[in-house]
Structure formats: structure tokens, C-alpha cells
Amino acid sequence: MHSIFCKGLYAFVLFSTLFLQVAAAQTIAAEEPLRLAVDYARFRGDEKSVYVEVYYSIPQRSITYKADDSGWSGGIELTMVVMRKDSVVYADRWFVPHTVKDSGGIAAGMNLVGLTNAALPEGEYNLAMIGRDKHSPSRRDSVSMRLPLKLFADEKVAISDIELASNIKQQGNKSSPFYKNTLEIVPSPDGLFGEDQRCYFYAEAYNLLVNGDRGPYYTKTVVLDAIGREVISRERSKKRTGESSVIVENILTDQLNTGSYSLILGLMDSSKKVMASVGRRFIVVNKKLGIDTTLQTGPRLGSLGEYAGIEEPELDREFDLARHESNYAEKQQFKALTGADAKRKFLAEFWQRRPLGFKQEYLKRVGIANSTFSILGREGYWTDRGRVYIVYGPPDNIDRHPNEPGYRPYEVWTFNSIQGGVMFAFVQRASGGDYELMHSTHRNELHDANWMQNEARIR
Known about the structure:
By secondary structure, the chain is α+β, with helices and mostly antiparallel strands. It has helices at residues 2-25, 312-321, 328-336, 340-352, 358-373, 384-392, 451-456, and strands spanning 27-28, 37-44, 49-59, 65-68, 71-84, 87-100, 111-121, 123-133, 136-149, 158-159, 163-170, 179-180, 183-187, 192-194, 198-206, 217-224, 230-238, 245-252, 259-268, 274-285, 397-401, 410-415, 422-427, 436-440. The chain is built from seven helices and 24 strands.
């Protein structure tokens, strides 16, 4: 009897092992972390609302694929929520599929790109987008951002946000989700361009006839590098053929070094007086030219020119990202400021007070924290693990305990070069929730020597 049972058990284990091997062979695991890139642009709606387009992109290699009759299929379930104060004013959920005939069709550097839109009244909103891998639901990412909306005034010339695009086709396909005003505009939510690409951009000008000027007007495009130096400047004359107009241009990136740039788009009247302007940042990765070495020896980073044309919501966003670096006095000073000019000056001086190159390293850590630790609509830089990563950098070691009997999931991070060696303990106190900092040996952090018994142990 015992022998028969053992043989049966052996057969079951063998079958289970073969089944798991076959199942694994039918799955292509994601080759990189799931990362959402999200951006938006605001356009004129009706007299009561602003028309908002929200753009998103998902790397193909961040998706898990499974074999089916069509080849290999996967996708991401997206949820978008727009809130005003504590109330949900708009919510939507949809699925972004992707199918390839063979694994070689999952291209490196290729993204799934899409957009959604909504018409919302004037006001202050928060937008959150959450993505989940269809075949591996535990893999997820989220992005949240402020969404301030203001109606476009009728009594003066105005300009929409700039929509960055990887391509703009004249006389585009009307069935394309990216079609508008006879154009097919493929958005670039991450604002990232290589040396072999063009940085296309689209905007809309409004109220061009409001002041009685019927002569030509001008668009002025200016690109500033990271320290505010003008690297591109051009003007183009346009006829006033109607009350509104579409602006479509592009920038060659092959002569731009790797780095962050500010794109300023201005509208000038026939006497070259500026009527309206708007700004947008974009990033160039030029492997041929590399980083401009003069940035290390020239004027200090964070000069006022870097913020020229950047609107108040983006300035607020940058200072919020700097929450782990700013002190109490700086927070109170920024809170008391009104207007974009004052905030531009404050941010320029804020970063100039830090060491050379500090801003770039800090914001790089913020980006990694947001892509790694975001959870439940909360961006990574707000979480405990995100804060520790931003402030202290990547740990030398992470000891993960996701399924230890009798304990909640927890992680222990160690840093060997800080104060002779320190550790941070994070515990997932709520099932499916975030990991919270419970204890650290760092002299300036939370200390609870009994954290294993008090917080990690299941009682």
C-alpha cells in the first residue's frame, strides 16, 4: 500500500512538473519593469469646459505574453481617474492589447501609444492612471499628477498646450485615434527623442482676430538647453486666415547633445510684440554627440533661463518633487509665492544653492522611485521606500521576505557607506498595500528595535 502511494505521488509530482514546464514554455516573461509614461495637453472646449487629451505609452517589453492562435498576445489594463478634492469626476477603464506572431516581434525601444480625452469644467483636479499586466496582474505601475484647468479667455490671443509628437502626418488617416484637424499626430508622452528622430509638436492658436489686427502674425520657436542657453531660434510668418489656427513644426535633434531642453513657442503680432507664449520640456538622447561637456564648466545649472516659458503648474510640480530636499523655510517661502515669474526665480535659486549636478541626480532618483515604488495611484516619491531611495540612493543590499510564515511581507535595506553602515526595515502592514518604514539604525530616522514583534509578526 505504501509503495503504491509513493508511486502515485511520484507520478503526480512528475506530471505537475511537466505541466509547469509546458505552461512556462507558453509564456514570454516581461523583459523590463512595467513603466507608464503619461502626459496631457489642454485645448479650448466650449464656454463651460476645457478639452483635455491624455496621452500614454507602454514599452512592449514590459508586457507578459502568452501563446494563442494568433501567436503571442498580451496587454495592459488601464484605469484613469480624475478627482476634484475628494470626489471622482471622471473615470474610465480600457484594455490595450498587443499581439506578435513570434517573440522576435517584441521590439526593444518600441512603445504602445494611445490617448483618451475628456471635457471638464474649470478647476483644480488630480489625474491618476494605473496600469496592470493582463497575464501578470501583480505587475503594475501608476502615475498621478495635478491637472489645473482654466477656460481660454475670449478677449485676448491665447495658445493651447504644446503636444509633443513622434510623428505628424499631413492629410492623416481619418480612422486613426490620433487624427484631428486633417493631421495624424502620434503623441510622445515621455518627451524622449533620439538623434535619428525629429521632435514634432502641435499647438492651437485662438482669438487671432480679437484686437483688430488683420496683418500677418509670427510664431517664434526657441529651444534652451539645461542652463538656459539658446540653441535654436526661428520665426515664421503666418497669415490671419481665421479666428484660430493650427501650429505644426518640428525640431531636428541630430545636432543636439544628450540632455534636457525647454521648448518655448510664442505668438507675435505684426509689430513683433509677444501676444502669448507657452513652454514644454523634452529630452534628447544623442549617442553620437553625448552630453555637452561645457555644462560642467559653464554657468551654474538651474539658471533662470531654464524655466523661461514654463507654466505655473509645472513649476509647482517640480517643487513638489523636491519635497525631500527642501527644508521647512523653503516650503513656506514657496507656498507664499504667487505667479509664475516668482516661482521661476525661486526654483532657479533653489537649485543653485545645491552642489553642481545635484539637481540632475536628485530628479533621476525621483524618476526611478516613481517607476519602481508607485502603488494604488500613489506616486513612488510619496512612499517610504521612494523617499529613502531618493534621499540616500540605491541600497547596497535588499533582503526581501514576501512569504515568511508567521510574518507580514517585509524588506530590509542596508547601506554600507552611511554612518558606518545602516539598515531600513519596511513592512507591508495591509495586504496588497505599500511597504511602510518601521525601523532604521540611521540616527535621523524612525527607530523601533522591536519592529519584528510589533509590526512584522502576524498576531
